[in-house]
């Protein structure tokens, strides 16, 4: 314990000085509490008074010591002419011991003083056998039990206030964490949407613009420019749609068509156009039963996984057939995309790996599984998604 921590509070210094001065004034005026049964000289009453007054300086820093000295002092005071100030100081020391003492002492003192009050009351009535004997028990309760109970009540209120403040701080912290996680999740979702919607068109533009620059043939350049213009227009439209969604997120706006698996034919048709110059063909095997539907989030995720797989095929696949299979079995929607893999001559678009990350995130967010890798001369993409509504909601 540092000297600074032992320094008395200014309020305690004022309380000690006022209490001792008030006690000395009453003693000098002959105001005593037990003048008819004292055993010591009149000046002896000043000793407990000064001792308890000094304990007021330590009431916050050493409550246990002040209570022990205070108890001994108030007992000693009963053998002198007595000082009311000494008794009042003792009540404050009892109160301070509960408020500033250790939790165990704060819990025990109200119970202990309550029991002492009851025992003193019963003993006084049994010994004196007069109604006035009840006053001894009342005074004992006022001096010991009442300040202890008051201190316990105040301490409980303070602890409840501290607990409430901590809960409020924790709630605010959790709310901030939730907000931060929500922002992060929304940014990740926006990144996936932006990548999946625009990367396909930009990849085709990059490939065909490189072809137009590297192959000095009028027909090839014209076809490349046609594909570039078509993908530029479509990519710009997708960008405008996404920007419109972001700007009008909090306002009422027209419902935007969400891609579904019914649009895979058109998606593969566009891929055939973009990949024809690279010798790529695209085949779709939709093994679902006619009219069979899956939850909208699953359908969108499956569509985007196929879309990103076709984009990767346009970037990296060698000449050959890209096969897309979609099936629903045992409550699971499976998506498989196989692309010919090998050293590819001619222009190719660079990749960043963000597409694979986005596909994996889409699958895992729905509780599904995703894998991608090279096998038997093919680049295989596999995604398994829950096809039941309850599984997605959970």
Please give a structural write-up.
- By secondary structure, the protein is of the alpha+beta class.
- The protein has two domains: 3-171, no CATH class; 259-394, Heat Shock Protein 90 (2-Layer Sandwich).
- Helices cover 64% and strands 11% of the residues.
- A five-stranded mixed sheet has the order 1-2-3-5-4.
- Helix 3 packs parallel to helix 5 and helix 7 (133-214) packs across helix 11 (354-365).
- It is rod-shaped and about 130 Å long.
Global shape:
rod-shaped
Kindly report the spatial arrangement of strands forming the biggest sheet: 1-2-3-5-4
Number of structural units classed as domains: 2
Number of distinct beta strands: 5
**How many whole angstroms does the radius of gyration measure?**
43 Å
Classify the helix fraction into a percent range.
Answer: 55-70%
What count of helical segments does DSSP give? 12
Portion of residues in beta strands equals 5-15%
Low-pLDDT windows of residues: 251-255
Structural class: alpha+beta
Main pleated-sheet profile? 5 strands, mixed
End-to-end distance: 56 Å
Q: What is the overall pLDDT average?
A: 82
Write the H/E string, N to C: HHHHHHHHHEHEEHEEH
